[in-house]
């Protein structure tokens, strides 16, 4: 049985979680299944809410975010998280831009993000 999960992160440019939580709830995500973090400062700070979401999510589940920038602090980090979830057969839905990796177009976008994450990883290893 699939479960719909939500993730919200407060930080720049959205310092308040309330708006994100309201949007996730309005999209049908049960408030008891929303994982949250408050990001402040360091880009390498561990986010326990995201780690808990990644640990909790199972194949067939759906992860909903208000916008992709809430998943990570950089394009590479967002790409890596989307690639990880997609490779585990977990659907990612983004309310802001309509990304849905359950659709053919969404899967194509996820594949591009996966390739970008691989490229970024390879570049980092060469440095």
Supply the CATH architecture.
3-Layer(aba) Sandwich
What is the mean predicted local confidence, pLDDT? 87
Major beta sheet, strand line-up: 2-1-3-4
Low-confidence stretches: none
- Helix proportion of residues, in percent? 40-55%
CATH superfamily name?
Resolvase, N-terminal catalytic domain
* Spatial shape: globular
Count of individual helical segments: 4
Distance linking N and C termini: 44 Å
Radius of gyration: 14 Å
This entry's quaternary arrangement is single chain
CATH class category = Alpha Beta
What's the number of extended β-strand segments? 4
Structural class: alpha/beta
CATH topology: Rossmann fold
Question: What count of structural domains?
Answer: 1
Strand content range: 15-25%
Q: Major β-sheet, in short?
A: 4 strands, parallel
SSE succession: EHEHEHEH
GO molecular function: DNA binding; DNA strand exchange activity
Keywords: DNA integration, DNA recombination, DNA-binding
Family: Belongs to the site-specific recombinase resolvase family.
Protein name: Recombinase family protein
Written overview of the protein:
Keywords: DNA integration, DNA recombination, DNA-binding. One of its GO terms (biological process) is DNA integration. By secondary structure, the protein is an alpha/beta fold. The chain has a single domain, classed as Resolvase, N-terminal catalytic domain (Rossmann fold, 3-Layer(aba) Sandwich), CATH 3.40.50. It has four helices and four strands, in the order E-H-E-H-E-H-E-H. The protein has a four-stranded parallel β-sheet with strand order 2-1-3-4, sandwiched between helices. Strand 3, helix 3 and strand 4 form a beta-alpha-beta unit. The longest helix has 23 residues, at 104-126. It starts with a strand and ends with a helix. The model has no long low-confidence stretch (mean pLDDT 87).
């Amino acid at each position: 049985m699939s479960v719909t999960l939500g993730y919200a992160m407060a930080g720049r440019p959205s310092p308040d979680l309330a708006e994100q939580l309201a949007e996730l709830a309005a999209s049908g995500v049960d408030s008891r299944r929303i994982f949250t973090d408050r990001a402040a400062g360091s880009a390498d700070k561990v986010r326990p809410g995201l780690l808990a979401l990644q640990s909790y999510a199972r194949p067939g589940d759906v992860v909903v975010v208000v916008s992709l920038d809430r998943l990570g602090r950089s394009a590479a980090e967002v790409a890596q998280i989307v690639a990880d979830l997609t490779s585990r057969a977990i659907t990612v839905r983004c309310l802001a831009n309509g990304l849905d990796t359950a659709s053919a177009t969404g899967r194509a976008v996820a594949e591009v993000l996966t390739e970008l994450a691989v490229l970024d990883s390879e570049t980092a290893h060469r440095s």
